[in-house]
Structure formats: C-alpha cells, structure tokens
Write a structure and sequence with these properties.
Radius of gyration: 11 Å
Strand order of the largest sheet: 1-2-3-4
Distance between the termini: 23 Å
Helix content: under 10%
Length: about 70
Amino acid sequence: TALGGGGANKQIYIADPGNKRIVAFDKSDGRFARQFATGDLPPVHHVWVDEASARLFLLTDSQLFAAGLPQ
C-alpha cells in the first residue's frame, strides 16, 4: 500500500494493489471521495498526485506511469 497527496492537495490517495485501484479520501474529514481502477498495471508501490496540474503518477517495480487526474 502506498500513500500520496501531501502538500496543497485536498485529497489523500492510497494505492490498493490487491483490488487494482487507487482510492482517494478527503483530507479534511477522511470521507471516501473517489476511486480509479488501475486495470492490468503491475502492483503500484508509490502514488504522487499534483491536483493543481491534474496529474497522477504511479510507480511500479520497474515502470513510472503518468496520467491526467480524472475530475
């Protein structure tokens, strides 16, 4: 499990490789906000999110994936 979303981000993002998803929770109250399926990606070990530029970065054992952050 990996966490991401420090700094000015409004949400914290948690990699859940067992369920092939990234889950986002609101930092202010801890409520579930949304989730993103990672599909056939290898298990994600690190998540980095820049909400200001709407970018999501996922690190696996050997690859770095970058994507637009769904709104």
